[in-house]
Amino acid sequence: MASDKVISRKYEVRSPKWRACYFILITSFFLLFSGCGNRSQTLERIRADGVIRVGLDPTFPPFENGDGGLHGIDIDLANAIGRELGVSVEFVLFGYDGLYDALLIDQCDILISALIIDETKTKDFAYSEPYFNAGQFLVVHEETTGVNSLTDFEGKTVSVETGSAGHVAAISAQNRVRDLSIKTLPTPDDAMWTVLQQETAGALIDQVNARLYMQSHSRLSLVAEPITVEPYAIVVRKDDDELLSEINQIIETLSFSGELQDIIDAWIGS
Questions:
Q1: What number of helices (H) and strands (E) belong to the chain?
Q2: Which terminus of the chain, N or C, has fewer Cβ atoms within 10 Å?
Q3: 84 and 116 part of one domain
Q4: Full residue range of the structural domain in which residue 142 is found
């Protein structure tokens, strides 16, 4: 079983003094091209060193939480990947804004930190197959039948958190769902409470908040078909093709075996 190690680093960029500019430019040029040559061998180096360095921001429970020790969905996923690779896992902690820079300058090998696939970053980075959809789902009462999507809400009311992605999706749906009404509430829990009391036909909530609430409110259920898709994926550098291929294979293996779902269910309920 792969062990894990936590290292906390502060990523900082300093502006060089003008007298050192020439030296730094030459050094940067050398590092840029030498780094490009080595990165394609990242997987080989990971196996040779016996450790994979996973970068994350430990402030986003239930995916990663640094309070009382490092734990969460992404921690368990990283450990499973390390086990499948036959190496130990070293967690390297950064602020959210420094994650991509840290990966680019080789302070870690991969990022697993509840990161949504961002097409604007694909010039320098590559994303794995998604391992979780953080998008919006419909929550309905257990007595509700025949609801598969928002198109089944004609003449009905859906509750949402004010200003949330679910609120935006519901407003957009009003253009194609006749007489769809929207009830706005301050929090996701408030929105789901109206469904529990059968005051509204359903709530449009992100999957994490919905499943956490449903853990203690068993009379609610999640409609399987998502309304929106916000895929979380693992990030590697653009030229780490072999590493990305290996990670995708591991995600497929964990999905097929049910272990990935077990990891997620352990933190947010089944």
A1: 9, 14
A2: N
A3: yes
A4: 136-222
Q: Is residue 266 within 8 Å of residue 76, measured between CB atoms?
A: yes
CB-based burial of residue 75 (10 Å sphere; 0-12 exposed, 13-18 middle, 19+ buried)?
A: buried
Ramachandran category for residue 269: left, alpha or beta (phi over 0 → left; psi -120 to 50 → alpha):
left
How many domains does the chain divide into? Answer: 2
- Return the beta strands (E) in 85-240 as ranges: 88-93, 110-116, 125-127, 132-133, 136-141, 157-161, 181-185, 202-206, 220-222, 231-237
What is the pTM (predicted TM-score) of this model? 0.83
CA distances from 85 to 52, 121, 183, 185 (A): 9, 26, 48, 46
Output the six-digit token pair for 221: 């259920």
The tokens for 258 are 């049910």
Give the strand order in the sheet containing 202-206: 181-185, 157-161, 202-206, 136-141, 220-222
pLDDT range class, residue 68, cuts 50, 70, 90: confident
Dist. CA 209–CA 193, nearest whole Å? 13
CA R_g for the chain: 22
Average pLDDT score, the chain: 89
- The C-alpha atoms of residue 219 and residue 159 are separated, in whole angstroms, by 17
Q: Each residue of 78-113: pLDDT tens digit?
A: 999 999 999 999 999 999 999 999 999 999 999 999
Indicate if 215 and 238 belong to the same structural domain.
Answer: no
Same domain flag for 251 and 119? yes
For residue 169, give the CATH number of its domain. Answer: 3.40.190.10
Q: Which residue has the tokens 């030459």?
A: 26
> CA 26: distance to chain centroid?
37
